[in-house]
Amino acid sequence: MSTLRSRPTANKPTPPQTPSPPPSPTRQHDLSPTSDSPDQISRLPSPLDILRILTGLLLLSTTLSYFITTNSLTWNYRPPWTRPARLRAWLRGPITLTPTELSLYNGTNPSLPIYLALNGSIYDVTASPHMYGPGGMYEIFAGRDATRAFVTGCFSPEHLNHDLRGVEEMFVPLDDDDDDDSDEIVSTKVRKMRRERDGRVARKKIEEAVRGWEGLFDGGKGGKYFWVGRVDWRGTRVGGVQGLCEQALQGRPKRVSEVGGKGKGEGKREGVRRAEEVS
Fold first, then answer.
1. 35, 138, 230, 255: which has the fewest Cβ within 10 Å?
2. 185-202 pLDDT, tens digit each
3. DSSP annotation string for 1-65
């Protein structure tokens, strides 16, 4: 029996396969939610949440203010519009008063405010009638310009005025009793230079003292005292230079030795030499 032989078939060549491109990496922004996704929208505070936060901060501030100041919910700050007298003064504008007219505003008339003047500026101190009104600790300052008394601390009637002449002496240093300026060591030129220097320093101290008192009475936006106008000094007679009271004279400073660490005579000669070199 004959065996059928199968004819081998040639394998068909397979077409080459093109490699598939690698998967592109996923971009970061593709994984993040879109700007209008519900998750992101839910993270934004609503107007009601903002209102709750602000209300909580306001309550916390007022509570702390009351416990710290014991009498104020706003840290002792009062806006100008909460003070009727200050608002009326602002609407009226600056005023000008003569010394005679200013004397009427001393607190004795309940229908008038209480004014005091400092360096020609008039301030309303009606907010403290227990201090500047009749019977108050500082009633002597009401209704007048007592700049001299503010600077010197001399409160007798002759010092309750605005005249600052002669006040420089209060700040000029005192020399030692045994410091003889009439000898040949200190020349006339050096003494003149010393007086000029002491005068400049004294005038600067007076200006600083006046500015300090002005800062107290011109309390800014929230202060209880405020500026209302100026004093008209025209026609006012000015007398002679008033001397200082005993209290002011006793408070004069002692002159500090210009050259330390040396004997009195040697230090004086060194100071004179330096002063002459500067000149």
1. 35
2. 557 878 888 889 999 999
3. -PPPPPPPPPPPPPPPPPPPPPPPPPPHHHHSPPTT-HHHHHHSPPHHHHHHHHHHHHHHHHHHH
Beta carbons within 10 angstroms of residue 56's beta carbon: 10
Torsion of CA 197, 203, 209, 210, to 10 degrees: -160
What is the secondary structure of 46-113 as a DSSP string?
Answer: PHHHHHHHHHHHHHHHHHHHHHHHSS-SSTT---GGG-HHHHHHHHH--EEE-HHHHTT-SSSSTTS-
Let me know the angle formed at the C-alpha of 36 by 30 and 42, rounded to the nearest 5 degrees: 110
Antiparallel, parallel or unpaired: β 115-118 and 121-124: antiparallel
CA distances from 20 to 23, 144, 241 (A): 9, 102, 110
Pairing of strands 226-231, 95-97: parallel
pTM over 0.70: no
